[in-house]
Amino acid sequence: MQEPGEKQSSVLSKIAMLAGVGVAAGAVVAGLALPAVGGAGFGLISATNEINLAPEELVEPPPAEVTVVEDAKGKPIARFYEQYREVVELDQIAPIMKTAIISIEDYRFYEHGPIDIEGTIRALARNLQAGGVAQGGSSITQQYVKQVLLNAADTEADKNKALEASYARKLKELRYAMAVEKKYTKDQILAKYLNIAYFGAGAYGVEAAAKRFFGVRADALSLAQAATLAGAVQDPNATDPNLGKKQRERLLKRRNVVLDRMAELGKVSKEDADKAKATGLGYKGTKLPGGCESSKYPYFCIYVRNEILKNPDFGKKAADRVKFLNRGGLTIKTTLDAGMQAAADKAIKKWVYASDNPVAAEALVQPGTGAIKAMAASRPYGGDADKHEMAYNVVADAAHGGGIGFQAGSTFKTFTLITALSKGMKVNDGFNVGAGYTAPGYASFKNCAGESIGDPNHTVTNDEGAPGWRTLQTGTWGSVNTFFMTLEQRVGLCDVVKTAKSLGIHRSDGNKLQEYETFTLGINEMDPVTVANAYAAIGARGKYCAPMAISQITDRDGKVTTYKPKCRQVLDPEVADAAADVLSGVFTKGTMRGVGGIGRDAAGKTGTTDSYATAWFAGFTPDLAGAVSIGDPRGSQSHKLNGVTIGGQYYGSVVGASISGPIWKDTMLAALKGIPPTKFTPINTSRFGGCGQSCQPAPPPDEDDDGPGDVWQDDNGRGGWGNHGRENDTGRNGRGPFG
């Protein structure tokens, strides 16, 4: 076998001889003969003036490889790729595969240099006889060069240039081939060629092709299978078995040509070749893994994909980020916890069916890190409406493949509660409120731009109980609209907005937050990831961490980059403790008491929008936070949650404690199973008063619900409103939430 550098010694003399033949014929050097293009008029060049036989270094960007996405424990959950390819070493390829490809493509591969002189002389003779370029004489090395140039092409123009039928292109290809043969051994070149070649059916490289065609690895290919793949590289589109019967018939014929050639060369016996020819094609069409549509966790997958495609950390330009993801051969380790994801999936499927018009969505986030542990929805992801599929990421914001989101309702009252505590109010501080609230004047509320936005002509109603004295505790437990409108007026709308923003609150659609006086009632459209993450910060005693889905990326060369949580202290820890104490009473004395707690320290807030357009629950423990939304993606304002059947259960009206709260509870019970419970840090009673929610008296019976009248629920937490009325508009757009 020739070593690198030894192959060039006799090449020039042979080329010179060949050039003489070509010039005498009025044509180009035979070794530069093109693949068949047919017809006359092919380009001719002067062998003496144009041929530059000096080797030229080939820039070899790594071929596109599959990027694998893993869960937190390293189990693959998705794949991204522009070309499905898995690069393998030569010893990971069956010897019979190497024999087959050499036999049919370049049987003297180990004997000649960068160009097969004898083969190209034959090609020249046939070209001259045909009166045009009828046959090519490319060696495997030349074919490898062409594939490198093709794969490096970023534009269609570059791709066409790599494939153009010109002698100039063949000359350049030969110069590159000479450099390649000087740089690598024959074995290395063969391995590179087998890893870069396209075999058809979307499979690039022999490993992907073996799996796609036959469901085996490249090292397990049989004689018939190896001959099939060797035959496919000549014209992979014409013999693509995935395209239909005609293509399979062509591939079968081509396979038999390869087998005959192997027998002719003595590489296999005629008996073995005939036996292999007697078998069927054996194409299995094994589905190539990849894309979020085929992932078991599509919504999390979409989040990860968008995290990379829209983050400048992974490439300055959008095109660079696409290439990084789809061609980089990365291993992306994520924060996804398969057990917690299973818990969320199971809980949602129990309460909401995929065929229901409303959609439930849930996100789980770890306090103190921002790690997203699960993203689930009641409908599968995809573009087929007939299969009840979602075409966007209903769990996340628009920046991560989501939509406009749903109004978050009274989950936003928590931000007003926190603002009041941070300004020195005690948990038992309060005031009298009426059944309705009207701003005293236009200057009673100011947004963060200093504009007066209080509307004295707009009344927020409160039909859930008699007017009276409400405290931070009882007002929160009963989710009293008029109490929180008054409280927001006293602590300042802008300060409430700032509190929300400090906890990562932003509109799902990416637009600016609406800063109206009804901000505390949750008029802004949100997504579960954002809301869950905000509540996680309270569970982490005021430490906000940006949502995090990627923990580590390993590139194709094995370089590991670890991503750490991006956190900052945004709340006084004792304020967060006091808020958690108040919100924990929601399970025992408030809107979730009919559903109950989870057997460990937990806190949360229900959210129901005006006229029951959407329903939420957001809650947390020190170990895990979650938010659940439910609404109709056809338009929550035009398709409200009144008189609907969801999960096989009829609801007169859906509130936060009807479905979202029970989903959260079922999820947490399963997700936290086996995890030792962490207790909340006790409230500082000397600073915030009270003795903790555990010793507070229960509110009057008609103050325990999330809307008008009393709530009833069965043992499963399903229920509806008795004696309910309807709230007036509490939002500037007629969509003000309550409860």
Describe the 3D structure.
The chain is built from 23 helices and 25 strands. It is α+β, with helices and mostly antiparallel strands and 739 residues long. Among the domains are: 194 residues, Orthogonal Bundle (Penicillin binding protein transpeptidase fold), CATH 1.10.3810.10; 269 residues, DD-peptidase/beta-lactamase superfamily (Beta-lactamase). A 5-stranded mixed beta sheet has the order 2-1-6-16-17. A 5-stranded antiparallel beta sheet has the order 8-7-21-20-19, sandwiched between helices. Strands 3-5-4 form a 3-stranded mixed beta sheet, with helices on one face. A hairpin with a 5-residue loop joins strand 1 and strand 2. The N terminus and C terminus are likely disordered. Pfam families: Transgly, Transpeptidase. It comes from Streptosporangium saharense. In the C-terminal section; belongs to the transpeptidase family. GO terms for molecular function: penicillin binding; peptidoglycan glycosyltransferase activity; serine-type D-Ala-D-Ala carboxypeptidase activity.
What characteristics describe this protein?
739 residues, alpha+beta, Penicillin binding protein transpeptidase fold, Beta-lactamase, five-stranded mixed sheet, five-stranded antiparallel sheet, 23 helices, 35% helix, 14% strand, elongated, disordered N terminus, disordered C terminus
